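Hi W., the zinc ion complex you wanted:
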Amino acid sequence: MCLSIGIYYEPNLKVEAEYACARLQETFPNIISTVIALMEVPAAAFDTATGQYDVNFLLELLALQQHCDKVIWIVGHDIGDIWHSYLFGAALSSRAVVSSARLRCLESLAKEVCHETGHMQGLKHCKNLCCMRKSWTTEGVLTKSMAICEACRDSLKGVSQEWPSVSYPATCTSSV
Ligand SMILES: [Zn+2]
Ligand SMILES: [Zn+2]
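Structure:
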């Protein structure tokens, strides 16, 4: 069975979501990604103590929308948590949030969507210039690749028997 990934997006980020969706399938041929629906970040997600939208709060909200194996939410707000003054993205095993607030080019945003998707599949950070390289700056995101390196691909092969695969159903099962 393929891994279905559903993408939610905030207002004005549909183009970004569609672009990331396409790049995601190029980077990970074992998944089928679908842009699902618009979802706005509620004001309640703002943490006045940190001055950021709380990424853990957003990850919790995302659990309510989980109609695919894994879900990603592309948001326009700047995100962080008590340990990080800002984050490009964050992932749990089946949910991820990526922020476009500091990643203004389509390419960079899509790289971080691929990065968090790698984490959701169990990949750790990688020292090669692949998308699993950890980036703290926008320049760091620009210089790494959208693709995954051979070492990362090999560790994915260990967890995914579907890698690489050729034919999948075209949609994931979403009721939204
Ligand atoms: Zn990471
Ligand atoms: Zn790698």
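Residues 126, 128, 130, 132, 148-149, 151-152 surround zinc ion (ligand 2) (CB under 6 Å).

W.
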